[in-house]
Every structure is written in C-alpha cells, then in structure tokens.
Amino acid sequence: MQVSRVVADSVRMALLKIAHMGHPALRGRAAEIEDPSAPEIRRLAQDMLETMRDAPGVGLAAPQVYAPFRLIVVRAPAGRSGGREEPETVLINPELTPLDAADAWGWEGCLSVPGLRGLVPRYGRVGLRALGLDGRLVEREATGFFARVLQHETDHLDGALYVERMPDLKLLAFEGEARHIEEALRAAASAETSE
Ligand code: NI
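That is the input. Now the predicted structure with nickel (II) ion docked in place:
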C-alpha cells in the first residue's frame, strides 16, 4: 500500500475518547436526533464504529464518547452465547419493547467501566424500532446476546450503566476473577440437580 494512502486512511479515521464511570457525560437523557442523514451524524457514527472495533467492543453509545445524542453502534460475533452473527449496525433513536420476562442472565462488561464484568438479568427477546443512517425505519426482533447488547447500549442513552441493573453486586468481578463466580454458580447448580 502506498504511504500516501496509509496517511489518508489514518487521517480519516478518528478514535474517540471514552468516558469512564463517574463522568457526568454518562448521566442524563440523551437527545433525539432530528436529522439522521446530517453529515455530522454520519461522521460521529463512523468514528464510533472505528472506536468500537479498536477497543474491541460489541457496542458503543454516543454519550460514552461525550456526544449527548440517541445513537448506538452494535454488533454480535458469531457463536457468542449461541446467538447468530449480527453485522455492525448504526441505530438512531432506538426504542426497545420487552417481549418476555427479564430473566436471561449473562455476563456484561462496558468500555466505560474498564476491567470489570457482571452478571445481569435482561429480557431474552425484545422488539427494536430505530432509524438507520439513511433515515429508513428499522423494525425487527432480537434475541439472546444481541438483545442483551441492545438493552445495554440503549440504557446508556438514559444515563444507566449495567452495574445499576445488577440485583446482586456479589456477581460483579474483575475480568480475571469472573471464572471463580462461574465455578461457584456451576457447583451450586449441580448440587441443586443432584438433590
Ligand atoms: Ni457500556
């Protein structure tokens, strides 16, 4: 690849700074986006995608990069929690409707809460309504891991972090220690089934 091409690519790409828990950017309700096709919105979405890839993460919400707007970028890798692959998607003004009980437990982490993992109950199935960058309406259902990612990211738009969705903070751990919680839960579950 030519040097000039490499320089041009790196100039176009912008990695955004991520706000950490405690910063007011992560609190409050983010504003609706009136014109999804505005060039500034497209630029923000592209930079958020680059930042998510670089982290790497499976989702990022605009307030996490100090932009107080209702915009999220999400993806779900193939095979994660048995779910199917979801390609990178930009969602504007997303709205979720629960379609079952909030009893699907799974591990979550957050780029704004680095180093930690927690077990969080979420809806296993949600209805999604949002706009794409082209202004077209996106309407679909999501299940499993992708439904979890959507709930985590839309929470950011209302100023909530996953730790606030945890009914039991004993299920919060540093990444390197989360396996101890998994082992304890497995042992408890097998004790239950053998009773
Ligand atoms: Ni997060």
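The CA atoms of residues 76 and 86 lie 5 Å apart.
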